[in-house]
Amino acid sequence: MTxxxxxxxxxxxxxxxxxxxxxxxxxASTAMLLGRAGRKVxxxxxxxxxxxxxxxxxxxxxxxxxLHRWGLLDTVRRMPTPPIRRTVFHYxxxxxxxxxxxxxxxxxxxxxxxxxxDRIVVDAARAAGVEVVWGVRVRDVLxxxxxxxxxxxxxxxxxxxxxxxxxxxxxxDGMRSTIATAVGATTEHETTAGSAFIYGYYAGxxxxxxxxxxxxxxxxxxxxxxxxxANVFVGLPAARFAAERHQGAKEMFATVLAQxxxxxxxxxxxxxxxxxxxxxxxxPGFLRRAHxxxxxxxxxxxxxKDPATAHGITDALRDAELLARxxxxxxxxxxxxxxxxxxxxELSRPFLDATARAASFEWTLDELRAIHLDLKRVTxxxxxxVARLSDPYALAA
Length: 397
Known about the structure:
Layout: E1 8-9, E2 18-21, H1 25-36, E3 41-45, H2 61-69, H3 73-78, E4 86-91, E5 94-99, H4 114-127, E6 131-134, E7 136-143, E8 149-156, E9 160-165, E10 169-171, H5 178-183, E11 187-190, E12 195-203, E13 209-215, E14 218-224, E15 229-237, H6 238-244, H7 249-260, H8 262-267, E16 278-280, E17 286-288, E18 291-292, E19 295-297, E20 303-304, H9 312-328, H10 338-359, H11 365-388
Parallel strand pairs: 1-9, 2-3, 2-10, 3-6, 4-13, 10-19
Antiparallel strand pairs: 4-5, 7-8, 8-9, 11-17, 12-15, 12-16, 13-14, 14-15, 17-20, 18-19
């Protein structure tokens, strides 16, 4: 190694079969699957166990299928997380009410809070033998004499410098990934449009369906989640958000909700969310190079799409499994993720582009319906792929 260091190990040992940076659904799922296959895995995150994060909440069918196959869905249900049996698309004054049919063994959807879902997957990773360390700020990657990535350099806690080594370092640390920057992962495809969102949690709304509302220039949604609450969000063009954000989140939320979902705005007119508002200013979607010598990217670190289609968590779970399978099909001492990127891109790029069209708000309602049909075709293909996955190392422990 070109970098030799006296610093202490990040975890209990210095050497692992894999290091995963980021303990949200993408990283924790990847670590769990590798751990269930007997690999020695270190999973690190800069946050603390169980913390909340910005999220679209909604799981789509493929994500529910995977949680079920991994033995985690019953835990999601027990939290409790309400089952979703209908999806209603509101195009202006027209509503398309779709009952969920059982398909691939799944007849219900779920939208757990991230304080629920992230803990469940991390706990499953730990149960699979993964070592989990919190409060780790990765500063850089280590490289061997050939330039291959072989570990991480990090700050643990407030000041301690530490290192860990492995033949594969997996960046699952979000769209502003430290690992992607450190390895020089190039952006291979990028969209131009991005939408902004504001959301809060409200009690007393329906709990058996997803509601999506669309009107020219604005959108909204109601997503039932844990503790009798619903995530109520509004979406708007990023440029409008930037121009009006001086009004504050409360005023912007009320204005856009009244524009896009007046019936929901009426129901909430005298109420405030239980824990304030959260907002996302928008960011273009992208596909980064997903692998290289000694490294790989998963989740938003490698593939970020606008939240407009609420597909981020589902795609994170899918890509975690695709990456884990690619690595497990290669020797532990020389892991190779090259087969992972092709299928990730084949599934992600058409969905990313269609999502960008929806996020642009440059559509009529009829055009948006056509975009949603395009998205359904891509999603159906994803569901078929996930249903076909055999799982010798993805079964419940």
